[in-house]
Design goal:
Radius of gyration: 36 Å
Number of helices: 18
Distance between the termini: 86 Å
Helix content: 40-55%
Structural class: alpha+beta
């Protein structure tokens, strides 16, 4: 037996003078109470006998949580509803406050949750330990059948529970069937070895600790109401399969032979007209509310991304409505770096541009050059700027022949070739770059950075002719 278990047993016997209900002979011959035994082991007399699978599968024990300094006990709306039921039930609000302080200081040990009951050992500041229980009415079999039928009819209810969420409409739909999932006034019934007949600091502390567990997993509440997670999900799956089978059978009967369907092709009604193209993309909703955002969440950045998503959606719709859409080539997905450059090309505010530059690892000047390349030619222009995809030897050989014939002898500029298919004009901050498709991109130097100076052309002389020299 651990020191903490021995301390609890000594405290209990000092107070009551005997082992009483909570002391018994363990299988190993130790007659002391293990404060971290499961609830079935702590209180055999209260065990619900629901058949061979009931006791062990319908119980969960949670290790003691650390002190909750500087935070509320309930972050979710259902956790707050649980604590509201405690405050509405307790006759003495001072006892609830003392329990909140005790829970905040870490006085609540491991919490055992089973149908109809939660249990924990709660210690006073002087070290005195008390077994505290809070009882909550279980739903009967008929009530569970109604709840499971309702949940099986809504995939959203099941998905929310699996995401450890309890949406209000789930509770509202259950209430519409006469099922109250969350406790109300008088539903949380206390029992404590301290002898209090109302909620004492120990049961109040237990309720506050359970609110933290409910925040993490709403299945804890459903277990208190009578069904554990595994059993609940199995029942839901069984009902979902039973509902899907008649639908599949009906679909099989409703089919027609392929030859008959093909023959009817000429008499089928025409497809509905495609949706009209909006005049402008929709604007993002303002996220500037009185509630502080979660740590690491930037509402202004989310608004910027929402506006960008709306603009892209309109562009995709416009392309889909275009007659040549069927023959348009498939566009590969963008990399993170390409998408950052695309966002920067839209001309965001300086602080967003700074974040994009940091995320892309290009720096402000590098991102400015990349954004200009993107505006001129998208991912292809960005590849020329970065030199990621040099032309093949065949394209390079043809390009050299084109360069030799592009100018008359008197007009030919002096070009200095460099790696990555680049030719710099000697005596001028101007450069030609060859893309993998054989087109020529004009570039000019801006400070220490080479930036695109115009769209690509098939003629290198035309590309250089359109380059505007930077101001001195």
């Amino acid at each position: 037996m651990s020191g903490r278990e021995r301390e609890y047993q000594d405290d209990y016997e000092d107070e009551y003078g005997h082992k009483g209900k909570y002391g018994r002979d363990d299988e190993d011959g130790d007659d002391t109470l293990d404060a971290y035994e499961t609830d079935d082991e702590l209180d055999q007399d209260d065990t619900h006998d629901e058949g061979p699978d009931a006791a062990d599968s319908e119980e969960r024990t949670f290790a003691a949580l650390p002190p909750a300094h500087g935070r509320g006990f309930a972050q979710t709306w259902w956790g707050r509803a649980w604590l509201q039921a405690l405050e509405d039930t307790a006759l003495d609000g001072e006892q609830v406050k003392r329990g909140r302080r005790a829970a905040r200081e870490g006085a609540v040990g491991a919490v055992s949750v089973r149908p109809g009951r939660i249990t924990a050992v709660v210690r006073d500041r002087d070290g005195m330990a008390h077994r505290s229980d809070v009882l909550l009415r279980e739903l009967d079999d008929d009530e569970w059948d109604r709840f499971l039928d309702m949940a099986a009819d809504s995939a959203g209810h099941i998905a929310a529970l699996l995401d450890r969420d309890m949406p209000p409409h789930l509770v509202e739909d259950a209430a519409g069937l006469g099922l109250e999932l969350l406790p109300g006034i008088g539903d949380l019934e206390p029992e404590c070895t301290c002898g209090a007949w109302d909620h004492c600091p120990h049961t109040a502390a237990l309720c506050h600790q359970v609110a933290r567990l409910l925040d993490q997993d709403p299945f804890v509440l459903l277990l208190m109401r009578g069904r554990g997670e595994r059993r609940l999900l199995d029942d839901l799956q069984e009902r979902s399969v039973a509902r899907a089978e008649p639908a599949r059978e009906g679909a099989r009967r409703a089919g027609v032979p392929a030859a008959e369907a093909y023959t009817a092709g000429d008499i089928l009604p025409p497809l509905p007209a495609p949706p009209p193209l909006p005049e402008a993309p929709g604007g993002a909703q303002s996220l500037d509310t009185e509630t502080d955002p979660a740590p690491g969440l930037d509402p202004a950045a989310l608004e910027f991304l929402a506006e960008d998503a709306a603009a892209r959606a309109r562009r995709l719709l416009a392309e889909a409505l275009a007659p040549e859409h069927v023959a348009a080539p498939w566009e590969p997905s963008l990399t993170v770096d390409q998408d950052a450059v695309r966002l920067a090309a839209a001309g965001p505010t300086p602080w967003i541009a700074a974040r994009l530059a940091s995320g892309a690892g290009r720096g402000r000047a590098g991102l400015t050059a990349a954004a200009e390349a993107w505006r001129l030619g998208g991912a292809a222009a960005l590849a020329v700027l970065d030199g990621y995809r040099p032309p093949s030897p065949e394209v390079l050989a043809r390009a050299k022949a084109v360069l030799a014939e592009a100018w008359e002898a008197a007009d030919r500029p002096t070009l200095r070739a460099s790696s990555h298919a680049r030719w710099t004009v000697v005596g001028a901050d101007v450069q030609l770059r060859l893309a993998e498709d054989g087109r020529w991109w004009p570039f000019r130097r801006a400070g220490s950075q080479w930036v695109p100076a115009g769209p690509p052309t098939a003629d290198p002389a035309s590309a250089l002719a359109g380059v505007a020299q930077p101001a001195e």
